[in-house]
Amino acid sequence: MIPRSIAILDGGLTFLGISGLLVGLRAFREARRSRPRRKTPRERILIAGAGDAGDILLRELQWKFSTTHEVVGFVDDAPGKEDARLRGVPVLGRIDQIRDVARQHRIDQVLIAVPSAGGELIRRITASVTEAKLGVKVLPGIGQLIGRAALLPQLRPVSIDDLLRRKAVEQEAEQVSGFLRGKVIIVTGAAGSIGSQLCRQILCHEPARLVVVDWAETPLHDLLLEIRAGTNESVVVSEMGDVTDAVRMGQIFTKHSPDLVFHAAALKHVPMCEAHVREAIRVNVGGTRIVAEAALAAGAQRFVLISTDKAVNPSSVMGATKRVAEVLLQKMENRGGPTRFIAVRFGNVLGSNGSVLHLFRSQIARGGPITVTHPEMRRYFMAIPEAVGLVLHAAHLGNGGDLFELDMGQPVKIVDLAQDMIRLSGLVPGKDIRIEFSGVRPGEKLFEELYFSAEKVHPTSHPRIFCLRSERVPEKDGAVLLCLNHLNVFPRGTDPVLAGLRDDLLQMLDPAKREGSLA
Ligand SMILES: NC(=O)c1ccc[n+]([C@@H]2O[C@H](COP(=O)([O-])OP(=O)(O)OC[C@H]3O[C@@H](n4cnc5c(N)ncnc54)[C@H](O)[C@@H]3O)[C@@H](O)[C@H]2O)c1
Known about the structure:
Layout: H1 4-34, E1 43-48, H2 52-64, E2 69-75, E3 85-86, E4 89-93, H3 98-104, E5 109-112, H4 119-131, E6 135-138, E7 156-157, H5 160-163, H6 173-180, E8 184-188, H7 193-203, E9 209-214, H8 217-228, E10 236-240, H9 246-256, E11 260-263, H10 270-275, H11 277-297, E12 302-308, H12 317-334, E13 340-346, E14 348-350, H13 356-365, E15 370-372, E16 378-379, E17 381-383, H14 384-397, E18 403-406, E19 412-413, H15 414-424, E20 435-437, E21 455-459, E22 465-470, H16 478-489, H17 496-509
Parallel strand pairs: 1-2, 1-5, 2-4, 5-6, 8-9, 8-11, 9-10, 11-12, 12-13, 13-18, 14-17, 15-20
Antiparallel strand pairs: 3-4, 6-7, 16-19, 18-22, 21-22
Helix pairs in contact: 7-14, 9-11, 11-12, 11-17, 12-16, 16-17
Nicotinamide-adenine-dinucleotide (NAD) binds at residues 189, 191-195, 214-216, 219, 242-244, 264-268, 283, 287, 306, 308, 322, 346, 348-349, 352-353.
């Protein structure tokens, strides 16, 4: 039998022991928590561009992120800024000194704050910064900056679009708005890259109605989901249909009586058109003829054809069909009537459906190689929103029979584009990802030309839109002959679209001989 005093003593000692342990543990934790932590070093920032955007970025960083980021300095090329200071932060050098400045001042990250800069400057900065293995972010170009919003959240990784960006030009948005506001507008090929961007931009200018025409069900459905959100639903009307179906186009145009028509429906892939010549001629020439006739019959004010630089001295079926479509419109214009026919030519747009950027991106994701057809292959490139903004402007400028050409800047070597894309993915061209040359494909040219030698280039009131005038006679136009030769190979009389076209093309080549067609 244990004496009761011992049991009480044991219980008391156990209680004291456990309590002491708990108090000790707690004291240890508190002591650890209150011990001063080792300071994490602030990220050292260099801002390229000591203009307004750079100044705002500095202010936002100093205001909100001074504990985590330190703006060490600026680099800028502008004369007079060499020894300048913004809010006490010095300009440390010129942009081409960025690598030395970054090394000397132990920079971690470079922020490019020149929204008006062309791609050349961004390419130079990105190349030296990524070589030095520093982080780099860029502000969008002027056209894409969000009004009065803070700049910091708009910083993003450099993309290929930034490298091909062009110096900003003020767009006279008011004139375009006045032209589109309150109009009934039909866009064909609305679900495609150009067509869908036309729809997005047109909707910003308050049309009375936007009628979207395409034969591709799912892309049209996706487009509707996107553009109807946030707008009055009744403004957007969808009409599924094939532009080579004259009856269907007649129905759509009679029903809506459009003021303006943008014709972007087309087959556009050079190799596909080489392989499917008949379809290319049916859609690109026959479809254009049918939609243009429907616009004229409905009394539309303007018809705008989206053309391409591949229509110039065409070496491919695709280019030839687009050239014939241009000639066809000039013939339609000469017929007189309420509709003014306009064509707008431009080179490749960045990131359109099936473009080289998509291909390169997936080849990089697979670990390479990237395939480029030829080391000297060059193309003009423009961002889709910029091209479409200029198309809307050209549509407003056009007087009928006008052929406009958009200023595409400098052509870019495709192999350089491939290397840029590899670098932007944080990899080294030739080491991490190989580039292979696969040979020029049928119908492909090494360089695209922007206009025929017989075409005279005239300026317009917009610095990036030119008007092409030519005394050229269509019978000398190889494109018409090429399409006609192909048409002659197809069995006669089986297809009303092709049968009508044959007459039109013959008439283009020898207007004297054929009466009653397009003249
Ligand atoms: N993408 C470019 O880089 C670029 C550059 C300059 C000019 N263009 C020209 O712009 C036009 C459109 O090109 P895109 O890049 O938007 O092509 P895309 O293939 O993205 O769009 C074409 C659209 O037309 C539709 N379409 C095709 N045939 C049709 C038919 N018979 N009936 C109804 N709809 C039909 C397709 O479904 C598609 O939605 C082409 O004529 C092209 O030559 C394109």
